[in-house]
Write a structure and sequence with these properties.
The structure holds three protein chains of three kinds. Chain A is α+β, with helices and mostly antiparallel strands. Chain A is 45% helix and 17% strand. Chain A has a single domain (8-117), classed as Alpha-Beta Plaits (2-Layer Sandwich). In chain A, a hairpin with a 2-residue loop joins strand 2 (37-41) and strand 3. The longest helix of chain A has 24 residues, at 94-117. The model of chain A has no long low-confidence stretch (mean pLDDT 87). By secondary structure, chain B is of the alpha/beta class. Chain B contains six helices and four strands, in the order E-H-E-H-H-H-E-H-E-H. The chains are: A alpha+beta, B alpha/beta, C alpha/beta. Chains in contact: A-B, A-C, B-C.
Chain lengths: 146, 150, 413
């Protein structure tokens, strides 16, 4: 992602690991730097600060379990008045609902990344095809005659 | 490194995989960061002002709703910048920046119409699908020029 | 809630953050001491809301609108009112917006107002709507009033005429109707005429309500108990005069400068539109037509009823072009009654095309405002919509009667 004019960056780190807990990641960040802010949330850890520092720290965190820790940029820093639930009241931010769904898929992605690293060959995924009309006709006829 | 536009434009999985495989994801979060840190504009929450849907006119005509054009003012420049793209379709879960179906249709069209390499997939819901998903993305990203190769 | 409390308004919207209007919405809310909030909701309801609501949509943010509406109805989110809004020209959102509004209205007693925006929608445009919404939230007890009690006065300061109505024990006993020159002086004049007709003394009046463009000025001058925008007042006045206070109704008010189309339920305004594109669809155009035809405005309607609009081509999208085609048709030898009919048809057609597209037309259709007295207008409207148009007695006094009725809520028993 390109550098921002204001020099800051917010990244969202999502842990989907059996061996690393969000608190481990948080500690890793706390120990590494002082001029960045972190916020733990129910779906991941937000890291905000100078761009190069955030990138370096996040890289370290990912190393804890590289195929099971995922990262994306976030537009708003944590607790921004314009986005914060406290200011605007009410329910979760719209983007959260999509994130929630993606987070549900992370174990699948993590496992696939492990397989990729271990050079496990790809098997062909068979997806059911649409039923042929002639076959449907056969089914109907056999059901009727039963 | 290739600049890869992602769809959904705010996807954690795609953003992560592209960076992981050594390329630059073009995602809407970066655009929003720039928007909300623009000094002198106070139009919360996203700092989108009535001027932005006008910028969106570059991508959609005036009879297209203002919300579509406002979104296009964020997404359009990313497509302009893209050298490749990955499109993953699942309308059912697209909220927020991806919450408008008309914007999404236009976004995908403009991406495909650009003539850049595009990989189209569906979201995985099983281990086997997940493996195929990751492998296909890695293969696609491998086929794109990397900075250290040039 | 008391009149001073901040009103919590749930924003059930799609696209507002991206269209550049969010700050305008916030600003309009702030001006009427309201706060817009996203309603708290159960996250998992997003997975099931489409089938629960029965409406499947392509845009996920519209699901969010339905889920938020459900949270409001079920009380998960505690709010005093709901503002339902989406992009103008989005068909999918328009369906959801209308159904969500209907759903909230039918399943809760929380006031709801719906509106579609463009990037040019300003806080000023939103203000009347937000004022109407917060009024319904704050003054619900007042709007529930179906009978006028005591001795009260309503003053309606319109852009063209000023109206006064004096009511006693649910009866209209005095009325005044004068052209608006100076807001306060004209109101004084209308008020005096009404006082004389009623045969009462000003000091016996128990409460005053003001409405219309000059409502704030009049409210201050006459020490009014109620100062209220015309959407709420006219809705109430129309169903009161038409005797249809319960259930649905559509109110069309053709004023001197602009028009209002309001869909009303139990006397409370829901969806409404204000203002035409041009004065071509207003009383002013009819006034100019009468002048050209050399008849009194009061005679124009009778003339129009006798004419055939189809014989004259008329375009009132612009008052200038409208008058031009009027002059042309007269020069070509058209009969005065046909021109009068065409003028009425033209005004009604523009209301249909510009305003009735955005509100649900439910019977009874109540036509009010000075222009409703021009017989050609209700006839043209009825012909166009293929339904009977109700013009209640005293239909020109709608705002004044509505204000007098609502003001009686301030009369101590």
């Amino acid at each position: 992602m390109g550098a921002h004019e204001d020099g800051t960056l917010t990244k969202l780190v999502v842990i989907s690991s059996d061996s690393v807990l969000p608190i481990d990641a948080a500690l890793e960040i706390y120990e590494s730097e002082t001029n960045i802010t972190i916020k733990e949330t129910c779906f991941g850890t937000m890291v905000t600060g100078p761009e190069d520092v955030v990138n370096r720290v996040v890289k370290e965190v990912v190393k804890l379990d590289k195929n099971h820790i995922f990262v994306k940029e976030r537009g708003f820093p944590p607790g921004d008045d314009r986005r914060c639930r406290a200011g605007r009241g009410g329910g979760p931010r719209p983007g959260f609902h999509f994130l929630r769904n993606e987070i549900g898929m992370l174990p699948i992605i993590g496992k696939a990344l492990d397989d990729y690293d271990n050079n496990v060959p790809l098997e062909k995924v068979v997806r059911p095809e649409k039923l042929k009309v002639s076959h449907l006709k056969d089914i109907i006829e056999s059901e009727i005659t039963r | 490194m290739t600049k890869v536009f992602i769809y959904p434009t705010n996807s954690l999985i795609l953003s992560d995989l592209i960076e992981r495989f050594g390329h630059t994801p073009l995602a809407v979060m970066g655009e929003i960061h720039d928007k909300i840190t623009t000094i002198g504009i106070d139009s919360p929450p996203l700092n989108i002002t009535p001027e932005d849907p006008k910028h969106g006119l570059k991508y959609a005509a005036v009879e297209v709703p203002a919300g579509v054009r406002g979104r296009m003012s964020l997404i359009g420049p990313l497509i302009d910048e893209a050298e490749a793209a990955i499109i993953v379709d699942d309308a059912a879960i697209s909220f927020g920046c991806m919450g408008c179906a008309r914007t999404n249709e236009l976004t995908k069209f403009l991406t495909r119409d650009k003539g850049i390499p595009v990989l189209e997939l569906v979201y995985p819901y099983s281990d086997a699908e997940g493996k195929e998903f990751v492998y296909k993305i890695s293969e696609f990203l491998d086929s794109l020029p990397k900075e250290d190769r040039s | 809630m008391s009149e001073e409390d901040q009103v919590k308004v749930a924003l059930v919207s799609c696209g507002s953050e991206f269209a550049g209007v969010q700050s305008q919405l916030d600003s309009a809310a702030e001006q009427v001491n309201a706060k817009l909030v996203y309603p708290e909701m159960d996250i998992s309801s997003l997975d099931t809301i489409e089938m629960e609501f029965g409406l499947q949509v392509a845009s996920a943010d519209l699901k969010l609108m339905m889920a938020r509406a459900k949270a409001v109805v079920e009380g998960t989110a505690r709010v005093d009112g709901v503002f339902v809004t989406s992009c103008f020209r989005c068909a999918e959102a328009a369906i959801v917006r209308n159904e969500v509004r209907r759903y909230i209205h039918q399943n809760s007693d929380i006031p709801v107002i719906s509106y579609s925006f463009t990037e040019r929608t300003t806080a000023a445009t939103l203000l009347t709507r937000m004022e109407a919404l917060t009024t319904i939230a704050r003054r619900k007890h007042l709007l529930a009033r179906e009978k006028q009690t005591g001795l009260t006065v309503g003053l309606d300061s319109g852009s063209t005429t000023t109206k006064a109505a004096i009511m006693r024990d649910n009866e209209l006993i005095g009325e005044g109707w004068v052209p608006t020159v100076n807001v306060v002086e004209s109101a004084r004049k209308a008020y005096d005429i009404a006082l004389e007709q009623a045969g009462i003394k000003e000091e016996d009046v128990q409460a005053i309500g003001t409405t219309g463009y000059g409502r704030f000025l009049l409210g201050e001058h006459f020490n009014a108990q109620l100062v209220q925008e015309e959407i709420t007042v006219n809705s109430k006045g129309a169903v009161y005069l038409a005797g249809t206070q319960k259930g649905p109704a559509t109110v069309i008010d053709i004023g001197g400068m602009d028009n209002k189309a309001i869909s009303v339920e139990d006397g409370i305004p829901g969806m409404f539109t204000m203002g035409g594109i041009c004065a071509g669809a207003s009383g002013r155009f009819l006034e100019m037509t009468a002048k050209r035809l050399g008849v009194e405005i009061t005679e124009l309607g009778k003339l129009a009823v006798k004419g055939m609009q189809a014989k004259v081509e008329m375009n009132s999208y612009c008052i200038v072009f409208g008058i031009q085609s009027l002059v042309n048709s007269l020069a070509q030898g058209s009969a005065a009654q046909d021109v009068a009919a065409a003028a009425c048809h033209s005004v009604v057609e523009q209301i249909f095309e510009q305003q009735l597209q955005e509100v649900e037309v439910k019977e009874p259709l109540i036509l009010v405002g000075g222009s409703s007295l021009i017989e050609g207008i209700p006839k043209a409207l009825g012909d166009l919509l293929k339904i009977d148009v109700v013009v209640p007695p005293h239909s020109q006094l709608i705002g004044a009667v509505g204000a007098a009725l609502l003001a009686s809520g301030y009369v101590e028993d």
